[in-house]
Design brief:
The protein is built from six helices and no strands. It is an all-alpha fold.
């Protein structure tokens, strides 16, 4: 056991956020027992494979997740465009489930499926940035740039929010 330079805090936040995505879409889709079993099985297989891969190379795993998150951003962007162009008629009047409204603190009048997709896409963009940044860093040496406070406000710095978002992540030289 050793110190992780503050990485676990951000990784736990990301895991919780991804869990909320899953729970939100489960509420919308209302899958049956067979589909739930398939999801659990897929998670079990992926978890074990990813665990072994992370033991070998955390940097490669973070890079891989960064690319998965990039694909998620593209997918949500396409879904938003399809919704706006009328290609998803059932989603036109669909409202966000209560779990999403509470989690994202969605204001009255901004609770449509389109609004939900915008929130989730923003989360995925942040996950992309975080994982690409962690892929650029050395886990054993570098502190978590998303957990720190920066005194030099004259240059852009990583943050927990969407300000200063870098799709390809922050390089070591920019955060050390």
């Amino acid at each position: 056991m050793k110190r992780d330079n503050g990485w676990i805090e951000t990784l736990l936040e990301e895991a919780h956020n991804e869990r909320m995505h899953l729970l939100t879409f489960l509420k919308l889709a209302k899958p049956g027992w067979f589909m739930r079993l398939m999801v659990i099985g897929a998670q079990g297989v992926f978890f074990n494979g990813f665990f072994l891969a992370y033991l070998i190379s955390p940097r490669i795993c973070h890079r891989f997740v960064g690319y998965l998150e990039e694909e998620a951003v593209i997918t949500y962007t396409r879904a938003i465009q399809d919704l706006e162009h009328g290609k998803l008629p059932k989603w036109q009047t669909l409202q966000s489930p209560d779990i999403a409204i509470k989690y994202w603190k969605m204001p009255e009048g901004r609770r449509s499926m389109r609004d939900l997709l915008l929130y989730v896409r923003a989360d995925e963009a942040k996950h992309r940035e975080v994982n690409h940044t962690f892929g650029n860093l050395v886990p054993e040496e570098d502190p978590n740039p998303f957990a720190g406070r920066y005194s030099d406000t004259s240059k852009l710095q990583p943050s927990k929010g969407l300000m200063n978002l870098k799709p390809i992540g922050w390089e070591r030289k920019d955060v050390l």
